[in-house]
């Protein structure tokens, strides 16, 4: 496009102030400080999800022995279910009221929910349901990502949009890095940890990450109250009145009465974003149980090693965002999105089991036999000497499905870690450009809800299919879904153009 991509080569997390309009804008610094607060909010959302994701399964087993792998799917999905419900509500709220209101409310809910998670061991019974509810509430608080995306879309010009969206994705990637990294670091606190008696609080490798996420939430609230200011600019970067009190149908920019949004492109964008988030939710959910089954890792080893892998994927994602900004400028947003889907397809294809080596079978679960009862007063199974490892014999596919090799697992992680961030940032960059100068709170809420719905269904899907049918069926179905997304993108390829291009204001 003639003036759309002129500064998309700006370095990641660095805002280009060379534009003469911005240099003359006395509020330029304040506007970008406010945008960076939104970056931090996105970062916090990622941390809130990933800081406990690798320890979720062992914590669940520890606090409630009745929990199984199928319930783990609901545990992971709970976060996204809460976010799916909250996103349109917070998005609608942000369209009619100052952004500060839904942000402070949502972050406060997130903070309280993380404290609730840390105390999930305390009730005498039904602990798994307390964990489930805490994750629902953490996800509900994370519904503010719709507000953050709407704010950034409204506070940036069209030529700043791709860079700002990439920066926001980089902030999410930093959250994905630091979340597992902090969890891996805190794993050395151990399963026993220390007890703060006057608070009746156990500080261990499962509770301290949630409490740290709560502390991040407090910092975020202070930044929103003290730094955030309301800004809205048009496609050329000129200030216009705030859209927060303007309805979706009424915006005083150009002739919006006759310039409509391409609803087909919007619907297709939501479907594609659903697929992107679904496949990554599957990947996140299955990583710990898959590695414990295939490599006979203990709970502590699975938390540590998968945390290290997730950190590596996070750093890799930041490099991908650098490449994506350059690639989008050179080849366009749509080809980059299509390439990202193809790389993800290759990653899940790589995960399909092959060969003649089978996983170690876990023939008995010590926590259910009489020997374990006799040892209950002795050393804890968490010390690694008594904990059963390997693929549980109740999963019948373990006896005839080939093992996944460690090198195969890491190679697949690498490919998915390249394809996912490319698809993620291009999905909502294109979505924002298709929407144009319209108020985007509700639209971004629906996009976030679409992704949250995927993160709700993905874990449930993979936990059930994996438990009953094994990795071969689970990953084959994912490959089919990615292939379908590529076909859909190709069919709607010409509709994914910016609002200004569609209405002839800018030549593509």
Describe this structure in words.
It is a single chain. With 508 residues, the chain is mostly helical. The chain is built from 17 helices and four strands. The chain has helices at residues 20-23, 28-50, 56-63, 69-96, 100-118, 127-141, 145-155, 158-186, 208-226, 263-295, 299-331, 333-350, 370-374, 406-435, 441-469, 471-491, 499-502, and strands at residues 194-196, 201-203, 361-362, 391-392. The strands form two sheets. It has a two-stranded antiparallel sheet with strand order 1-2. Helix 13 (370-374) links the parallel strand 3 and strand 4. Helix 4 (69-96) crosses helix 7, helix 8 (158-186) runs antiparallel to helix 11 and helix 11 (299-331) packs antiparallel against helix 12. The radius of gyration is 23 Å and the shape is globular.
**Class of secondary structure makeup:** mainly alpha
The tally of helices reads 17
Uncertain regions spanning at least 5 consecutive residues: 1-13, 16-20, 245-257, 365-384
The portion of residues forming beta strands comes to: under 5%
Helix content: 55-70%
Strand neighbour order, sheet with most strands: 1-2
* Number of E strands: 4
The major beta sheet can be summarized as:
2 strands, antiparallel
Radius of gyration: 23 Å
Shape: globular
For the termini, the CA-CA separation is: 4 Å
The sequence of SSEs as H and E is HHHHHHHHEEHHHHEHEHHHH
Mean pLDDT: 79
């Amino acid at each position: 496009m003639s003036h759309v991509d002129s500064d998309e080569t700006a370095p990641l997390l660095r805002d280009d102030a060379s534009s003469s309009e911005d240099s003359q804008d006395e509020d330029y610094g304040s506007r970008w400080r406010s945008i960076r607060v939104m970056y931090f909010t996105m970062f916090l959302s990622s941390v809130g999800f990933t800081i406990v994701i690798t320890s979720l399964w062992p914590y669940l087993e520890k606090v409630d022995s009745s929990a199984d792998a199928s319930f783990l799917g609901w545990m992971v999905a709970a976060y996204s279910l809460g976010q799916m419900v909250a996103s349109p509500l917070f998005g609608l709220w942000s369209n009619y009221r100052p952004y500060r209101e839904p942000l402070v409310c949502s972050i406060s809910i997130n903070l309280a929910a993380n404290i609730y998670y840390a105390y999930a061991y305390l009730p005498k019974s039904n602990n798994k349901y307390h964990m489930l509810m805490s994750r629902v509430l953490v996800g509900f608080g994370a519904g503010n990502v719709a507000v953050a995306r709407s704010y950034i879309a409204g506070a940036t010009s069209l030529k700043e949009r791709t860079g700002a969206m990439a920066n926001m994705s980089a902030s999410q990637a930093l959250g994905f890095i630091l979340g597992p990294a902090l969890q891996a670091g805190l794993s050395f606190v151990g399963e026993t940890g220390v007890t703060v008696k006057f608070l009746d609080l156990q500080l261990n490798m499962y509770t301290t990450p949630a409490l740290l996420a709560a502390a991040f939430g407090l910092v975020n609230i202070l930044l929103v109250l003290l730094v955030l200011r309301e800004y809205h600019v048009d496609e050329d970067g000129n200030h216009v009145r705030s859209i927060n009190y303007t309805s979706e149908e009424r915006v005083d920019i150009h002739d919006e009465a006759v310039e409509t949004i391409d609803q087909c492109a919007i619907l297709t964008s939501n479907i594609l974003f659903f697929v992107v988030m679904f496949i990554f939710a599957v990947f996140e959910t299955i990583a710990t149980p898959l590695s414990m089954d295939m490599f006979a890792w203990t709970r502590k080893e699975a938390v540590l090693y998968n945390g290290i892998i997730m950190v590596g994927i996070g750093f890799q994602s930041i490099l991908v965002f650098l490449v994506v900004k350059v690639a989008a400028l050179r080849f366009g947003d749509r080809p980059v999105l299509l390439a990202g889907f193809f790389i993800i397809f290759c990653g899940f294809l790589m995960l399909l089991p092959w060969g003649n080596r089978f996983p170690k079978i876990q023939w008995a679960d010590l926590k259910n036999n009489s020997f374990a009862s006799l040892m209950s007063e002795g050393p804890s199974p968490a010390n690694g000497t008594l904990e059963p490892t390997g693929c549980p014999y109740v999963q019948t596919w373990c006896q005839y499905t080939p093992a996944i090799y460690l090198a195969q697992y890491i190679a697949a992680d690498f490919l998915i870690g390249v394809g996912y961030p490319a698809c993620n940032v291009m999905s909502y960059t294109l979505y924002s450009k298709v929407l144009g100068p319209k108020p985007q709170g509700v639209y971004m809420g629906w996009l976030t809800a679409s992704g949250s719905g995927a993160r709700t269904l993905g874990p449930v899907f993979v936990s059930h299919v994996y438990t009953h049918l094994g990795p071969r069926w689970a990953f084959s179905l994912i490959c089919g879904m990615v292939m379908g997304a590529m076909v859909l993108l190709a069919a709607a390829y010409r509709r994914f153009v910016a609002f200004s291009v569609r209405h002839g204001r800018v030549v593509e």
